[in-house]
Amino acid sequence: PAVAAAMRLGAVVSALRPALPLLLGLSLGCSLSLLRASWSHGAAEERCLAPGPPAPPARGALPEAAEGRPGPGHEDFRPRIVPYYRDPNKPYKKVLRTRYIQTELGFHERLFVAVLTSKATLNTLAVAVNKTVAHHFPRLLYFTGLRSAKVPHGMVLVAHGDERPIWLMFETMNYIHQHFGSDYDWFYIMQDDTYAQAEQVKALVTHLSINQDVYLGRAEEFIGGDEQARYCHGGFGYLLSRSLLLKLHPHLDSCRNEILSVRPDEWLGRCIIDFLGITCVSQLQGQHYHTYELAKNTELEKEEEEDFQAALAVHPVSDMTLMYRLHKRFSRIQLDRVYQEIQDLQVQIRNLTALTPAGEAGVTWPVGINAPFLPKSRFEVISWDYFTEQHLFSCPDGSPKCELSGASKADVSEIIESAVEQLNRRYQPLLRFSKRQLLNGYRRFDPTRGMEYTLDLLLEAATQKGHSHVLAKRVSLVRPLSKVEIIPMPYVTEATRVQLVLPLTVQDLDFVANFLDMFAMNTLDTHDNALLTLLFIYHPYDAQRVGQVDVFAGVKAMVGELEKRYAEVKIPWISVKTEVPSQVKLMDIVSKKHPVDTLFFLASVWTEINMEFLNRCRMNTISNWQVFFPVHFQEFNPALVYRGEQTASSNTDFLRDGHFDRHSFAEACFYNSDYMTARSKLAADILDRDEVLESMEVFDVFLHYSGLHLFRAVEPGLVQKYTLRSCNPRLSEELYHRCVLSNLEGLASRSHLAMALFEQEQANST
Prior knowledge:
This is Hexosyltransferase. Pfam families: CHGN (PF05679). It comes from Orthonyx spaldingii (Chowchilla). One of its GO terms (cellular component) is Golgi cisterna membrane. It is a single-pass type II membrane protein. The protein is of the alpha/beta class. The protein has three domains: about 105-330, Alpha-Beta Complex (Spore Coat Polysaccharide Biosynthesis Protein SpsA, Chain A); about 385-480, Roll (Nuclear Transport Factor 2, Chain: A); about 500-755, Spore Coat Polysaccharide Biosynthesis Protein SpsA, Chain A (Alpha-Beta Complex). About 35% of the residues lie in helices and about 20% in strands. It contains 22 helices and 27 strands. It has a six-stranded mixed beta sheet with strand order 3-2-1-4-9-6. Strands 22-21-20-23-26 form a five-stranded mixed beta sheet.
């Protein structure tokens, strides 16, 4: 039995031998955990039983609450659930949310810039600052004591009424705190005789923490003062954090009464030091505030010092010309840095691409730019536009040939110059090229990479020995898409009232009932903030018989029924007698009967009004900035599209069974004030030649006589049923031609027309 037991034990040990390390590790871990728990428990008991008040925390340590919970220093980092409670005795009130989440979360803008100027330098140095760096900063204001009679265009000026330097600084700090203290994280103060590298200043604030009180600039010693205290020299600009500005504001009045100084920057520095104990520094959080003091007769074009090239601010700048020269020099330095960075990145891309499975064949041209778009079918092929130095053979109006002018001509000239420059850069000093002629030019826009060009150039190549030879060379160029920027737009709301204007002729009577039904269902029933004005256009013959037979009597009866159904709604109408219903003349009549701040929507009788489009009309139309001309979706002729089959009813099919009518400019959204301004310029141009108005539409008025943005975009929410429009032959040739084209292209698509012809031929053959 003993031998058998020993054999069984040996078998068990041999079976457990692979698991012995795991068992030993678990045992050791459990033992250490129990020991650590007992030590911690004992320390906690001793601390709880210790007599007397608790010891204060060590300096720099955060206090902790009872039961191991985070103390006050951690409260901002813990999520808190605020319970919702509503008093049942109070009436329910709808909570108004902010339009942007940035406002609700309390986000601040990054940088505010204040420029201190004077009446003497407002039209000189301040203008130079505005033209060189103002467009790089998100918000920039000019502060002066007294203002001149005329403020330069494009400058936001704040005048305090006193030219004393200390008073100007005091009022400026008060103004910044009152109007912008809660909106921005950083405040940069500079003088108008300072040149600041805007991009470098913006990059500086992105690397600084907003949780510290920052007083950053060129540190200078006080005259006869404390050796440790420093103020920031105003000529080189200085940066203040929002937290410092908030702490400083309560002490500004005391500083004005107690601190005597001649220089405003010294006064501000002494105020910050005395009341906040913060001195100016030139280096903070690893970031340096580099400055450069400009000497007289400095040759900027030859200045190669490292301090100059790294400077964020240069002072003093004595005149406008010097300011522009500085801007040109620093722009060239920045451009050279960017080009060098691009070259370094291209070298890295080549080296890394060689290690990829595709190898060197995977390198695209130009290096770092997306590869050309590869079409998946013949319908996705991007066509090339042919051009010469004088003509373009793909014109916007559809004509086969037009003169090269404006931006297109400047684009072609710049591309040719760039091609010759690149050739000379590659082959000099062995060869030097000069352009003789552009033989052929091709360009196309690739949305994945930019504008592509292919040029056949006739060049004259000259050698170092003076020999020349004429040759033809083909070059390819790409103008890549640059960084996408958000265009700043004025703030608009969806609460603006829309005034619909509907011109009606005798030919439109069959469609008025449907228009009024859709208007009542989508605006009156939903209480949308929209009104309607009808414009009855009488032919002179019908106007003479209006006492016996009113052709618009049925429409007026329908309007009366709507007003009875909706007691609070009034639908006015205006009667006009004319043979040629010019859109501009009709709009002149309507404009005079409405306030200048009215938002008009010029509609057509085939338009189906809905809330979705009216909101886009409000959002896309900005007073004194932008007008909106939507491109409606025109459904095809159902007799040709379906040929007796059931029509499509789903929302996804209507985009297939129609097209966006780019020939129609009947619908428009604009403000009355913008129309009146453009119309007055038109009146001064044409004088008393009213016949010119018959060849124009409202779109032409805004296009040629206003500086506003014309926003022309497809509008899927503006759908019109198919109908054959009547084109008035008394209109201008261009307007009549556009009307005919709209009718023809609105019949059906090419495939539908082809099937209709095929079926007709089959029917004729049988």
